[in-house]
């Protein structure tokens, strides 16, 4: 299929809910053809119904790394191009350090880190043919400072920041910009679960967030739209906190 310069095609992993859904929604509102990839078919279906005809769902468990090359091939043959990749899918696990099993640690690393590598590698093969592209990895405050009881999550997100920089230096000369967004505390199911059960942690979060309230998923959508657009054409290799000041808070 010929590349269409009037059209942009994006992939958003975990696009069926939370931050991913907000990013997909912002892209679709800006006429970007957006493929949302996720595990939960019902959630994906609800998202495509909500976002309309510029949004396409492909069910795929990204932690199943061997399925990734086929996923990317099917997107390229259907859409002819991939302009934007947002690696957003992720899981968290809150447990005391000594309680975490090797299997649990590995599962978080596979989902949050290995899938980002494998999917980016396959998408970059296509972006190199095009000579351009923009990749956005979703990081976390867990990579900005030490958070207790999320050892695997912290390891995965810190590695995401390093991988973002390594990809940026290697791929930017070839026209592919690579950046990360580090969301602060954003209202989603994931944070509701993590914070509502732990009032002390909730207090700590607000205590060091200068803006004094949690962010909205749409705040991350705006940042992703900006970083993926030509308005950010000279920006690569950054980890952009969108956090109400949480990462610099006292
Ligand atoms: P969420 O749980 O609402 O969304 C995560 C999405 O990823 C879900 O749609 C889920 O089905 C999908 N997903 C998980 N594992 C998958 C797999 N193996 N294959 C395919 N899809 C999979 O959570 P939320 O909060 O929207 O998180 C999105 C990203 O933002 C994650 O990477 C998370 O670490 C990051 N983040 C979230 C923050 C927050 O305050 N909510 C703060 C910092 C980072």
Q: What's the CATH H-level homologous superfamily?
A: NAD(P)-binding Rossmann-like Domain
Mean pLDDT score, rounded? 96
Rg from alpha-carbon coordinates: 17 Å
Largest sheet: 7 strands, parallel
Bound molecules: 1,4-dihydronicotinamide adenine dinucleotide
Distance between the termini: 53 Å
Helix segment tally: 8
CATH architecture: 3-Layer(aba) Sandwich
What does the overall shape look like? globular
Biggest sheet strand order reads 3-2-1-4-5-6-7
- Name of the level-1 CATH class: Alpha Beta
**Low-pLDDT residue spans:** none
H/E series: EHEHEHEHEHEHHHE
What is the fold-level CATH name, i.e. the topology?
Rossmann fold
Question: In total, how many beta strands?
Answer: 7
What do these coordinates show?
This protein is α/β, with parallel strands linked by helices and 250 residues long. The protein has a single domain, classed as Rossmann fold (3-Layer(aba) Sandwich), CATH 3.40.50. It is 46% helix and 15% strand. It has eight helices and seven strands. It has helices at 18-29, 41-51, 68-79, 102-130, 151-171, 189-196, 199-207, 217-228; strands at residues 9-13, 33-38, 55-59, 84-87, 133-138, 176-183, 239-242. A seven-stranded parallel beta sheet has the order 3-2-1-4-5-6-7, with helices on both faces. Helix 1 (18-29) links the parallel strand 1 (9-13) and strand 2 (33-38). Helix 1 packs across helix 8 and helix 4 (102-130) packs parallel to helix 5 (151-171). It is globular and about 50 Å long. The chain binds 1,4-dihydronicotinamide adenine dinucleotide. 1,4-dihydronicotinamide adenine dinucleotide binds next to helix 1 and helix 6.
